[in-house]
Amino acid sequence: MTTDGALARLIRSAADRTATSAAELCELCAAPVPDDHRHLYDGGDDEVRCVCRPCSVLFADDAAGEGRYRLVPRRRVRLPRVDTAILGVPVGLVFFVPRADGTVTAQGPSPAGAMRWEVDAASWQRLAAMCPQLASMAPEVEALLVNTVHGLDHHWIVPIDDCYRMVAVVRREWRGLSGGGRVWRAVEGFFEDLTERP
């Protein structure tokens, strides 16, 4: 999944909100959108787009993902510890996005944006058998978000836009070669602010 466009928009919108009170615009109809606006997954461009309420309602019933746009859900589920070692991903802050074609991508934040690599599909299926909640994830628009950095133990099913917000936090707060203490405090704060939603 390409995160550069979505990530750049999230960083820009955060900077714009702190610098001015100018409203962000819907990427479909150009109407102003509130801070708590919804997002659509654009399957044609493999990006997430900000949308106003009327435009989000237009795509609210496309749960099967048959069209170009899919409404990003708001569901958040805190999971018990999920042993992601089976997936062979060597980082502790990462999100896994299942795709409609059965593939799975892993993405980890970095000061330059999200790094991305493919996960073995059979390994993902074994993990989903151990944690059946993973099978309920909506392809492309939900992710397994994991943070085991510095002894933490966070495992969540979240909307994909939460993952992009986390990547934006890392990119904004990263200092030097190792990120510095500031970035990890910001990441911890991000996870502390996550709340479960049906």
Description:
There is one protein chain. This protein has a 6-stranded antiparallel sheet with strand order 6-11-10-7-8-9. It has a 3-stranded antiparallel sheet with strand order 4-3-5. A two-stranded antiparallel ribbon has the order 1-2. The mean pLDDT is 88. α1 crosses α4 (160-173) and α4 (160-173) runs antiparallel to α5 (180-193). The protein is globular, with a radius of gyration of 16 Å. A hairpin with a 2-residue loop joins β8 and β9. The two termini are 25 Å apart. The protein folds into 2 domains: 4-71, no CATH class; 77-193, no CATH class. It has 198 residues and is an alpha+beta fold. It contains 5 helices and 11 strands.
According to DSSP, the number of beta strands is 11
Could you say how many structural domains there are in total? 2
Rounded mean pLDDT is: 88
How big a fraction of the residues is strand? 25-35%
| Low-pLDDT segments | none
Q: Could you describe the largest sheet, including whether it forms a barrel?
A: 6 strands, antiparallel
Strand order of the largest sheet: 6-11-10-7-8-9
Shape: globular
Number of helices: 5
Order of helices and strands: HEEEEHEEEEEHEEHH
SS class? alpha+beta
The rounded distance between the terminal residues' Cα atoms is 25 Å
Helix content: 25-40%
